[in-house]
Predict the structure.
Amino acid sequence: MKKLSVSIFAAAILLSSCGKKTEYNFSASSLITLYEAQEDAQELEFQTQKWHKSNKKTVVFFGYGCNEPEFVEKTKAKLFQQYGDAEKNGNLLALVFPDDFKHGTRSYTTNLANILDDKEVSALVVLGAPEGTFRAITRIQDEYNGKIPFPVISLFSQDDILGTEYTSDIVIDKKQKAQLNGILETETEQEFSEEMQEIIERAVFLANIAEAPFEKDAKLFNIAKMISGNTKISRYVDAETGLIPVNHFIMD
């Protein structure tokens, strides 16, 4: 698998401001081109090690439903092999809620902004966002004068829907299926764990290719399909208003 120089495709014009610098968005078309160029003949395979030391860090936030110790350790081990552990001069910073968000005896999602304040972030992938996560990301937006210069991907958020859509480039949830008696079907832990790990790998991979926010347009659907893999995906429809957000998708 060839490693292309992202800077050729993702070079952005930086705008000077009183706050932190901001960048233009990365188009879905360019991302798809890069993805296909780095894809093997059959399917995407990750190299044993494909990272080189960088000041930029990819942040993976393990929230509700994704913070079981065994799942976290397995997922981190796989990602660290690919990107390196930030605590050991690698490029991936793994944050687990609630342990890494404590202030005194309590944990606050708003601490995310404090944790990332002195770091150069290249991407943020949020898994099972706890309540209030969107407020923390809004604080980060404020530091960049309203425009975060890196991609934000939210998977299986448990936070406010509108807030998650507003603060994320792309949002992917899992469809809840009900049996005939109305009880929701549940997957086995193993099924969910294996599927989730693969989804996380693809999301982190795509976010690293881009290194800039995704344009919120109809082509985001193609990015959502790449992240979901072989799982069928459709656009999210708000049950109350019937509105279809451009960046929110559901996995069947």
About this structure: The radius of gyration is 18 Å. Residues 6-43+56-176+184-251 form a domain with the Rossmann fold fold (CATH 3.40.50). The helical segments are 6-10, 28-37, 69-83, 111-116, 133-143, 161-167, 189-210, 220-228. Residues 189-210 form the longest helix (22 residues).
